Amino acid sequence: MGDFLSGLTEKLSNFAGKWTSYAAFGSFLLYLVGYLTLRFQLSTYGLATDLDLFDEKYLFAGCRFVVYLVSCIPSILILVLVLTAIGYLPYRLTPAVIRERLRQWLAGLWANPAYLAIKGIVLAVIFIQLVMRKCFAFGNLLLRKDLPDEWITSILLAGDGRLALYFSGLVAGTLLTALIAWQAAQRGSPAAPFTRFLVATLVFLVAVEFLLLPVNYGVLISTQQLPQVAELPADGKSMEGGRAWMVWNSKDSLTYFLYGPSDRRMLLTIPRKDLPVRIVAYDDIYCVLFSAEHSNARPCPR
Predict the structure, then answer these.
(1) Would you say residue 241 has pLDDT above 50?
(2) Phi, psi (deg, nearest 5) at residue 49
(3) d(CA 270, CA 199)
(4) In terms of Cα–Cα distance, which of 37, 27, 24, 23 is closest to 69?
């Protein structure tokens, strides 16, 4: 018992000594994912603005992304448990000879680090090209009259549950390739240059996947809701025959999206003044703009 306590105390002391470095690295990661989230969120809206190098908005956006990311883990675990439960009974009913061959086949998949890395590279490339990069099809959506003719448009216009399920799938795919990369690195021989190259390539692709997670979050999820305002602070006039939403709030200016009769759209940036901004609702902006193409049952008033 004394050895355990002394070992635990030593580990805590080492962690406390390196706390500053851990905190700095964690803050950098939060700023990075927060910047990616906001940058692609604004690009999706079609807002051309320069982001400051240091802004507390990045930290808040990064924290929101991390919370959403962590909230997807239980969904992934539930899905894994359900699939395991479904496959367990057929596995137990399978003859012992076939089960042994299946175990040998699975062991063979993980035995050769080079082949394992190649499988991971193929999986990562397919996942990045066909799934994770599809969010780049969305740009300047507030000023567009129609959405891109891509399958991911149905995800953009989906409900919160389907969006969460889709993002959980992105996280699950990223974690799967990360697990393959970790196993390949553990089993790889330091003396094999070709294996090291394959593992390094796979690790790079996994890093790309992790960077694309906040990009997808910024495009598909964080852009859904916009605060509707009662009037423009520039003149205090109400929006007769149209509506306005606040898109961006910076230190020097406020940017609004104006939506009027005959589907007129405009982004308006005005200098920031000490005038109140009256928010009357938070609207699902894509349902408002593209409700005619929306097939689900969510209310999308125009």
Answers:
(1) yes
(2) -145, 150
(3) 51
(4) 37
CB 168 within 8 A of CB 69: no
Give residue 225's Cα distance to chain centre.
Answer: 16
Q: Where are the domains of the chain?
A: 57-221, 225-293
What is the mean pLDDT of the segment spanning 78-94? 80
| Gap between the Cα atoms of 37 and 215, Å rounded | 6
Predicted pLDDT at 187: 75
Q: Which residues pair with 238 in a beta bridge?
A: 231
Identify residue 29 by its one-letter amino acid code: L
- Lowest-confidence region among 14-28, 40-54, 248-262: 14-28
Note the pLDDT tens digit of each residue in 250-277.
877 888 998 888 778 888 888 877 777 8
Question: From the centroid of its chain, how far is CA 182?
Answer: 22
